[in-house]
Protein backbone atom coordinates (compact mmCIF):
# COMPACT_ATOMS: atom_id res chain seq x y z
CA UNK A 1 0.00 0.00 0.00
CA UNK A 2 1.32 3.45 -0.96
CA UNK A 3 1.65 5.76 2.02
CA UNK A 4 0.18 9.28 1.76
CA UNK A 5 2.76 12.02 1.27
CA UNK A 6 3.67 14.30 4.14
CA UNK A 7 1.67 17.08 2.46
CA UNK A 8 -1.45 14.92 2.41
CA UNK A 9 -0.90 13.70 5.97
CA UNK A 10 -0.73 17.33 7.12
CA UNK A 11 -3.95 18.15 5.26
CA UNK A 12 -5.78 15.07 6.57
CA UNK A 13 -4.77 15.86 10.14
CA UNK A 14 -6.36 19.32 9.86
CA UNK A 15 -9.68 18.07 8.43
CA UNK A 16 -12.51 16.22 10.14
CA UNK A 17 -13.20 13.70 7.38
CA UNK A 18 -16.32 12.39 9.12
CA UNK A 19 -18.02 15.79 9.04
CA UNK A 20 -20.71 16.52 6.46
CA UNK A 21 -20.25 19.94 4.85
CA UNK A 22 -22.34 22.19 2.67
CA UNK A 23 -21.12 22.77 -0.89
CA UNK A 24 -19.72 26.27 -0.08
CA UNK A 25 -17.90 24.89 2.99
CA UNK A 26 -16.41 22.03 0.96
CA UNK A 27 -15.20 24.42 -1.75
CA UNK A 28 -13.57 26.63 0.90
CA UNK A 29 -11.74 23.63 2.39
CA UNK A 30 -10.54 22.45 -1.00
CA UNK A 31 -9.29 25.87 -2.10
CA UNK A 32 -7.55 26.48 1.25
CA UNK A 33 -5.77 23.12 1.13
CA UNK A 34 -4.64 23.26 -2.49
CA UNK A 35 -0.85 23.41 -2.15
CA UNK A 36 0.43 22.22 -5.51
CA UNK A 37 1.80 24.37 -8.30
CA UNK A 38 -0.69 23.40 -11.03
CA UNK A 39 -4.34 24.39 -11.28
CA UNK A 40 -6.11 21.32 -9.90
CA UNK A 41 -9.45 20.09 -11.21
CA UNK A 42 -12.31 20.16 -8.71
CA UNK A 43 -14.14 16.85 -8.99
CA UNK A 44 -17.59 15.88 -7.78
CA UNK A 45 -18.79 12.32 -7.18
CA UNK A 46 -22.44 11.41 -6.60
CA UNK A 47 -23.31 7.89 -5.39
CA UNK A 48 -26.80 6.94 -6.54
CA UNK A 49 -29.23 4.37 -5.20
CA UNK A 50 -29.81 2.79 -8.60
CA UNK A 51 -28.94 -0.39 -10.48
CA UNK A 52 -26.99 0.69 -13.61
CA UNK A 53 -27.49 -2.79 -15.11
CA UNK A 54 -31.16 -1.96 -15.60
CA UNK A 55 -31.63 0.10 -18.75
CA UNK A 56 -34.38 2.24 -17.22
CA UNK A 57 -31.98 3.26 -14.44
CA UNK A 58 -29.06 4.15 -16.69
CA UNK A 59 -28.50 7.78 -15.68
CA UNK A 60 -26.95 9.99 -18.33
CA UNK A 61 -27.45 13.53 -19.46
CA UNK A 62 -25.90 16.86 -20.31
CA UNK A 63 -25.58 20.06 -18.31
CA UNK A 64 -24.26 23.50 -19.17
CA UNK A 65 -22.08 24.58 -16.26
CA UNK A 66 -22.55 28.34 -15.68
CA UNK A 67 -18.79 28.96 -15.59
CA UNK A 68 -17.49 26.10 -17.71
CA UNK A 69 -15.11 23.33 -16.72
CA UNK A 70 -11.84 25.20 -17.19
CA UNK A 71 -10.83 22.48 -19.60
CA UNK A 72 -9.79 23.20 -23.17
CA UNK A 73 -12.42 21.65 -25.41
CA UNK A 74 -11.44 20.53 -28.92
CA UNK A 75 -14.54 19.96 -31.00
CA UNK A 76 -14.84 17.69 -34.02
CA UNK A 77 -17.83 18.08 -36.33
CA UNK A 78 -18.95 15.58 -38.95
CA UNK A 79 -20.74 17.74 -41.49
CA UNK A 80 -20.78 18.89 -45.11
CA UNK A 81 -21.37 22.10 -47.03
CA UNK A 82 -23.22 24.86 -45.11
CA UNK A 83 -23.22 23.05 -41.75
CA UNK A 84 -19.46 22.39 -42.05
CA UNK A 85 -18.80 26.06 -42.80
CA UNK A 86 -20.94 27.18 -39.84
CA UNK A 87 -19.11 24.79 -37.52
CA UNK A 88 -15.73 26.23 -38.55
CA UNK A 89 -16.96 29.79 -38.04
CA UNK A 90 -18.23 28.84 -34.55
CA UNK A 91 -14.76 27.60 -33.58
CA UNK A 92 -14.71 23.84 -34.24
CA UNK A 93 -11.11 22.65 -34.50
CA UNK A 94 -11.79 19.60 -36.67
CA UNK A 95 -14.45 19.52 -39.40
CA UNK A 96 -14.97 16.94 -42.10
CA UNK A 97 -17.08 14.18 -43.58
CA UNK A 98 -15.78 10.98 -45.22
CA UNK A 99 -12.22 12.26 -44.87
CA UNK A 100 -12.63 12.75 -41.11
CA UNK A 101 -14.22 9.32 -40.71
CA UNK A 102 -11.19 7.78 -42.40
CA UNK A 103 -8.80 9.69 -40.12
CA UNK A 104 -10.63 8.47 -37.00
CA UNK A 105 -10.59 4.90 -38.30
CA UNK A 106 -6.82 5.26 -38.71
CA UNK A 107 -6.46 6.28 -35.07
CA UNK A 108 -6.42 10.08 -35.22
CA UNK A 109 -8.54 11.31 -32.32
CA UNK A 110 -7.28 14.75 -31.29
CA UNK A 111 -10.60 16.06 -29.95
CA UNK A 112 -12.77 15.55 -26.85
CA UNK A 113 -16.26 16.47 -28.11
CA UNK A 114 -18.01 15.24 -31.24
CA UNK A 115 -20.97 16.75 -33.09
CA UNK A 116 -22.61 15.39 -36.25
CA UNK A 117 -25.43 16.33 -38.57
CA UNK A 118 -28.27 13.78 -38.94
CA UNK A 119 -27.25 12.97 -42.52
CA UNK A 120 -23.73 12.06 -41.38
CA UNK A 121 -24.84 9.68 -38.62
CA UNK A 122 -25.22 6.71 -40.99
CA UNK A 123 -21.47 6.87 -41.60
CA UNK A 124 -20.50 8.06 -38.11
CA UNK A 125 -22.31 5.08 -36.58
CA UNK A 126 -19.54 2.90 -38.07
CA UNK A 127 -17.17 4.56 -35.59
CA UNK A 128 -19.18 3.32 -32.57
CA UNK A 129 -16.48 0.92 -31.41
CA UNK A 130 -13.91 3.72 -31.50
CA UNK A 131 -15.92 6.70 -30.20
CA UNK A 132 -18.33 4.84 -27.89
CA UNK A 133 -15.83 3.65 -25.24
CA UNK A 134 -14.41 7.18 -25.10
CA UNK A 135 -17.86 8.70 -24.50
CA UNK A 136 -17.60 10.65 -27.76
CA UNK A 137 -20.45 9.19 -29.80
CA UNK A 138 -22.91 11.92 -30.90
CA UNK A 139 -26.38 11.58 -29.43
CA UNK A 140 -29.59 13.47 -30.38
CA UNK A 141 -30.58 13.43 -26.67
CA UNK A 142 -27.58 15.62 -25.87
CA UNK A 143 -28.06 17.83 -28.94
CA UNK A 144 -24.79 16.61 -30.44
CA UNK A 145 -26.69 15.26 -33.45
CA UNK A 146 -28.08 18.43 -34.94
CA UNK A 147 -28.43 20.48 -38.09
CA UNK A 148 -27.48 23.58 -36.09
CA UNK A 149 -23.78 22.82 -35.82
CA UNK A 150 -22.84 26.39 -34.92
CA UNK A 151 -25.02 26.40 -31.80
CA UNK A 152 -23.79 22.95 -30.76
CA UNK A 153 -20.16 24.04 -31.08
CA UNK A 154 -20.80 27.19 -29.02
CA UNK A 155 -22.49 25.14 -26.26
CA UNK A 156 -19.59 22.68 -26.19
CA UNK A 157 -17.07 25.52 -25.93
CA UNK A 158 -19.09 27.28 -23.20
CA UNK A 159 -18.88 24.41 -20.72
CA UNK A 160 -21.49 21.85 -21.69
CA UNK A 161 -20.76 18.69 -19.74
CA UNK A 162 -21.96 15.18 -20.50
CA UNK A 163 -22.33 12.78 -17.59
CA UNK A 164 -23.05 9.07 -17.32
CA UNK A 165 -23.37 6.71 -14.36
CA UNK A 166 -20.55 4.20 -13.91
CA UNK A 167 -20.95 0.48 -13.11
CA UNK A 168 -20.76 1.14 -9.35
CA UNK A 169 -23.68 3.60 -9.52
CA UNK A 170 -21.47 6.70 -9.33
CA UNK A 171 -21.69 9.81 -11.48
CA UNK A 172 -18.37 11.62 -11.54
CA UNK A 173 -17.28 14.83 -13.28
CA UNK A 174 -14.86 17.72 -13.14
CA UNK A 175 -16.82 20.86 -12.31
CA UNK A 176 -14.07 23.47 -12.63
CA UNK A 177 -10.59 24.42 -11.48
CA UNK A 178 -9.33 25.22 -7.97
CA UNK A 179 -8.41 28.75 -9.05
CA UNK A 180 -11.97 29.52 -10.12
CA UNK A 181 -13.67 32.03 -7.80
CA UNK A 182 -15.43 30.26 -4.95
CA UNK A 183 -18.94 31.28 -6.05
CA UNK A 184 -18.28 30.00 -9.59
CA UNK A 185 -17.40 26.54 -8.27
CA UNK A 186 -20.45 26.55 -6.00
CA UNK A 187 -22.77 27.44 -8.89
CA UNK A 188 -21.18 24.79 -11.12
CA UNK A 189 -21.57 22.15 -8.39
CA UNK A 190 -25.23 23.01 -7.86
CA UNK A 191 -25.92 22.91 -11.61
CA UNK A 192 -24.31 19.46 -11.83
CA UNK A 193 -26.33 18.03 -8.92
CA UNK A 194 -29.50 19.64 -10.28
CA UNK A 195 -29.00 17.89 -13.61
CA UNK A 196 -28.61 14.54 -11.85
CA UNK A 197 -31.79 15.16 -9.84
CA UNK A 198 -33.70 15.95 -13.05
CA UNK A 199 -32.42 12.69 -14.56
CA UNK A 200 -33.95 10.61 -11.73
CA UNK A 201 -35.73 7.55 -13.16
CA UNK A 202 -39.51 7.54 -12.87
CA UNK A 203 -40.86 5.17 -10.24
CA UNK A 204 -37.51 4.67 -8.51
CA UNK A 205 -38.00 3.49 -4.93
CA UNK A 206 -35.73 4.25 -2.01
CA UNK A 207 -33.04 6.88 -1.67
CA UNK A 208 -31.85 8.30 -5.01
CA UNK A 209 -28.83 10.36 -3.94
CA UNK A 210 -26.94 8.39 -1.29
CA UNK A 211 -23.61 10.20 -0.96
CA UNK A 212 -21.88 13.22 -2.46
CA UNK A 213 -18.26 14.22 -2.18
CA UNK A 214 -16.03 16.93 -3.63
CA UNK A 215 -12.27 16.74 -4.02
CA UNK A 216 -9.40 18.27 -5.95
CA UNK A 217 -6.93 16.33 -8.09
CA UNK A 218 -4.33 16.03 -5.32
CA UNK A 219 -6.48 16.82 -2.29
CA UNK A 220 -8.73 15.02 0.19
CA UNK A 221 -12.36 14.14 -0.44
CA UNK A 222 -14.92 16.26 1.45
CA UNK A 223 -18.30 14.69 2.20
CA UNK A 224 -21.38 16.78 1.41
CA UNK A 225 -24.51 16.93 3.56
CA UNK A 226 -27.25 16.27 1.01
CA UNK A 227 -29.76 17.62 3.52
CA UNK A 228 -28.41 21.17 3.11
CA UNK A 229 -27.79 21.14 -0.64
CA UNK A 230 -30.30 23.93 -1.25
CA UNK A 231 -30.35 23.11 -4.94
CA UNK A 232 -32.46 25.46 -7.03
Largest sheet: 4 strands, antiparallel
Spans with pLDDT under 50 lasting ≥5 residues?
none
- One letter per element, helices H and strands E, the order comes to HHEEEHEHEHHHEEHEE
Spatial extent as radius of gyration: 20 Å
Report, as a whole number of angstroms, the end-to-end distance: 42 Å
Oligomer: single chain
Strand coverage percent: 15-25%
User: How many β-strands, per DSSP?
Assistant: 9
Sheet with the most strands: spatial strand order: 7-1-8-9
Helix segment tally? 8
What number is the mean pLDDT? 88
Helix/strand structural class: alpha/beta
Helical fraction? 25-40%
- Rough shape? globular
Which descriptors would you attach to this protein?
four-stranded antiparallel sheet, alpha/beta, three-stranded parallel sheet
Describe this structure in words.
This protein is α/β, with parallel strands linked by helices and 232 residues long. It has 8 helices and 9 strands. α2 packs across α8 and α3 packs parallel to α7. The protein is globular, with a radius of gyration of 20 Å. The protein starts with 5 loop residues before the first helix and ends in an 8-residue tail after the last strand. The relative contact order is 0.26.
Amino acid sequence: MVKPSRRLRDIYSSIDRTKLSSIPEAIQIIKFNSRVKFNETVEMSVNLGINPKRSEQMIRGVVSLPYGTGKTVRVAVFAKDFEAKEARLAGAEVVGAEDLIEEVQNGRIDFNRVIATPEMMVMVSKLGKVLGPRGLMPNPKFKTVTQNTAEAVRFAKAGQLEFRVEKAGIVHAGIGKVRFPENHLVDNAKAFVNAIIIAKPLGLKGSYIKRISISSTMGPSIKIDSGVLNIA
